[in-house]
């Protein structure tokens, strides 16, 4: 945990089971797949000050915020390590006697009066603060209270520090000729220590409680209220009531949908973090090509705690669809942080790897962010809601003002936000409009595809966010990408709402879209470019990695793959409600031998030649079949929207929305029940969760899907 302030104070918890033979490498600290927890997630979280997290480890079930555990007949012993680290290197004052007294209470020897603070210090933004850490374990075990104090700027990798402390104390015990070793910290501190790790050894059930006070309350630190007075049933009931008001789960949703929806929102809000530091940027025509950006702050949600614990630009637009509904102030705050990361050119790095802790989780070759590459400007999804809300508010302004409702306040704040964000939005839009433009007017092309790739069956398009989704097999400057054109249509629609951008909504023009992207033979929308269908991977005669072999020369044509990219005109509501193409698109969505799967709409049609194919010998399919919740959400939302527009296909759209929603929802609920996780994607053959987990980024959109009728 940390406040949203650079060079401030971080605290955290590790635990280890010393009876495991592999205890040395199994210290739990960061969310890592390799720890193999059965499950962990914020079951409830309000994004601000309240959260309940449940973790199931091998022998321990834990609930953090109370860190309690059910009684066990065999009384396992646990070691907790709680740390407080001043990132700005301010020394901490540690009171060893107070620390021992707070844990000795575990033996039933009730301390006379509340124990004094364990740690005191001074740190931004709190000023003076005090931390009181207390623990109680089951009686009968000589509970241990140990510690180590370090002076170090490396507050991001404290698992290592704990290991080193344990090792040092073992050596010391051996040197003294101890007959039995205790796995404990060495009980010493470096001068001026800015990091303290406090260890509690206890019999279960055990409780660890930390009280943090700052400002005037510091001198009375010991009298801080007990956690169970702040946490527990009343707080939980209030959080649940607020959830039910914000996200009423529809009556037709499958049983268990509300539990999943609450855990999804909890996971998303609990994954909101604060990072501070600089990106490394990769400037193609510069020497040196990799340069540090300026130091900046980011408050953002994140896709997945173990796999993607940082900000991702195109994920964030989806996250905000939920966060805006829960807490519009938090949402505007996050959007503002993102827009502040924009370079003067209008470019925003797609992955925000700010600070040491974030960097520790990214392989070095992926750290530099290419300044020529874009990423879907999905923030416009939520900006469009904001702009639509404002238009509505302007119409009903007087009535609302008379009522003095919270809605008016939020409309006013949205208006202020959009006004202040406007120069940045314009810069972003203009950057996309110029740097990502295609050869034909009104067409667009993702940059950074590798035209010289020899091992990829279809060179990836990382900028699009859809990595290995198949495009034209031979990247050229002439190709045109349908999804980017549709993102631009969305962006231009939002920009034109403010009427500051004359005819910017031109990209939403349906006839122009058809001229560039409609394949009349296949009767659907498509990318266009230099493409061959007759390609395969083959091992070269001399051995080595498999390489791409071309059985037929490519030609300029519509790219025949059918999947998420083809569906963007529908998702972005660019097809007129009375156009027969709408009926065709709905038919495609519901065709089980094409796009419809037991997990929802699949990313690539089963009829596509690259369906389920590896892209290289080593890269399994990613966006080549599996169903993703973000796209399914956009599809359901668009179908419902068409279901509200008068037209010949209105009823068809409405029914398709209901059907798709039921399929996606029942699979997600079932998978959550079976595995305890939300997943990055879902198998389009079995419905099973795949990839990163817990993935409470855009998969959390299940919360919105569960609310649709
Ligand atoms: C942890 O909880 C799970 C699910 O409730 C249960 O199946 C399991 O037995 C529990 N494990 C322990 C060690 O209590
Ligand atoms: C922690 O990481 C820093 C670099 O971020 C490194 O210099 C230091 O040695 C690491 N410390 C430990 C104990 O691994
Ligand atoms: C977008 O690009 C088109 C074509 O180059 C140009 O006419 C238009 O003015 C541009 N709009 C903005 C806002 O840059
Ligand atoms: C690809 O190959 C061509 C011709 O060999 C070369 O001119 C070009 O620089 C290469 N592009 C990249 C990105 O390596």
UniProtKB/TrEMBL annotation:
<dbReference type="GO" id="GO:0009311">
    <property type="term" value="P:oligosaccharide metabolic process"/>
</dbReference>
<keyword id="KW-0812">Transmembrane</keyword>
<comment type="similarity">
    <text>Belongs to the glycosyl hydrolase 63 family.</text>
</comment>
<keyword id="KW-1133">Transmembrane helix</keyword>
<dbReference type="InterPro" id="IPR012341">
    <property type="entry name" value="6hp_glycosidase-like_sf"/>
</dbReference>
<keyword id="KW-0325">Glycoprotein</keyword>
<dbReference type="InterPro" id="IPR004888">
    <property type="entry name" value="Glycoside_hydrolase_63"/>
</dbReference>
<keyword id="KW-0256">Endoplasmic reticulum</keyword>
<keyword id="KW-0472">Membrane</keyword>
<dbReference type="GO" id="GO:0004573">
    <property type="term" value="F:Glc3Man9GlcNAc2 oligosaccharide glucosidase activity"/>
</dbReference>
<dbReference type="InterPro" id="IPR008928">
    <property type="entry name" value="6-hairpin_glycosidase_sf"/>
</dbReference>
<keyword id="KW-0735">Signal-anchor</keyword>
<feature type="domain" description="Glycosyl hydrolase family 63 N-terminal">
    <location>
        <begin position="1"/>
        <end position="63"/>
    </location>
</feature>
<dbReference type="InterPro" id="IPR031335">
    <property type="entry name" value="Glyco_hydro_63_C"/>
</dbReference>
<keyword id="KW-0326">Glycosidase</keyword>
<protein>
    <recommendedName>
        <fullName>Mannosyl-oligosaccharide glucosidase</fullName>
        <ecNumber>3.2.1.106</ecNumber>
    </recommendedName>
</protein>
<feature type="domain" description="Glycosyl hydrolase family 63 C-terminal">
    <location>
        <begin position="238"/>
        <end position="706"/>
    </location>
</feature>
<dbReference type="GO" id="GO:0006487">
    <property type="term" value="P:protein N-linked glycosylation"/>
</dbReference>
<dbReference type="InterPro" id="IPR038518">
    <property type="entry name" value="Glyco_hydro_63N_sf"/>
</dbReference>
<dbReference type="Pfam" id="PF03200">
    <property type="entry name" value="Glyco_hydro_63"/>
</dbReference>
<comment type="function">
    <text>Cleaves the distal alpha 1,2-linked glucose residue from the Glc(3)Man(9)GlcNAc(2) oligosaccharide precursor.</text>
</comment>
<dbReference type="GO" id="GO:0005789">
    <property type="term" value="C:endoplasmic reticulum membrane"/>
</dbReference>
<keyword id="KW-0378">Hydrolase</keyword>
<dbReference type="Pfam" id="PF16923">
    <property type="entry name" value="Glyco_hydro_63N"/>
</dbReference>
<dbReference type="InterPro" id="IPR031631">
    <property type="entry name" value="Glyco_hydro_63N"/>
</dbReference>
